[in-house]
Amino acid sequence: MSQTVDRALSILPLLAEGPADLGQVADRLGVHKSTALRLLRTLHEHGLVHRQQDQRYRLGARLFALAQEAVENLDIREIAHPHLVALNEQIGHTVHLAVYEESEVLYIDKVESRYPVRMYSRIGKPVAITVAAVAKLLLADLPEAERRALAEKLDFPMYTSRSIPNAGAFLKELATVREQGWATDLGGHEESINCVGAPIRGADGRVVAAMSVSAPNVVVTADELLTLLPLVRRTADAISREYSGQAPRQEERP
């Protein structure tokens, strides 16, 4: 299996030099044409290579899209991190940053709480997509048809009695989040954990990431956490402006 993966990945730098036909790919890999064809077909199915009308292969658009997403996500994390740290230093609670990729919402940054009780979330780990505040923010920004199609495919596990139970309720919640511009998870994933979040937007106004503040009931109540919403939103707005290349507001300047 590792040899197959190695051969498949070796095709990509070859095609980066320009389009190549089946024979050229097979010669470069040192394999039979049937083996090269099988590898090319697999890469084609994933959109990583494209077969032209002249029967030559070139790099696929999906590869460029993945590269662009990776660059953007690295950028947003780098830009957001100082803001997340500053917010954490001010309020003391766990701060998360998340993005939407391939039908999953993933944490890409986390600043731990100063309190002894810690969150089990990890960078790179998918979030509970039907209940997490960051997931609601990211999915609420999708076009309506895409939101509906996604909701119909999701399972709706009842983590707690406050979990969203079905697609209809989920779509209603996303509509509310889209209108109000912020989201919560008040015991929907874990009874004892509450969360409030805000969207981070690019220059075109689309949501590129979402941030949240989470805390257990033993540290602050849900009502107390909700009082931090204006601060969370101001932080998200500051990240959005920096990500979009806009000048910071007067109160944000050092």
From TrEMBL:
Pfam families, per the entry: HTH_IclR, IclR_C
Entry keyword tRNA-binding: no
Keywords: DNA-binding, Transcription, Transcription regulation
HTH iclR-type domain boundaries: 2-61
Matching InterPro entries: GAF-like_dom_sf, HTH_MetabolicPath_Reg, Tscrpt_reg_IclR_C, Tscrpt_reg_IclR_N, WH-like_DNA-bd_sf, WH_DNA-bd_sf
Superkingdom of the organism of origin: Bacteria
Oxidoreductase keyword on record: no
Coiled coil: none
Domain IclR-ED: 62-245
Record's protein name: IclR family transcriptional regulator
Species in which this protein is naturally found: Streptomyces kurssanovii
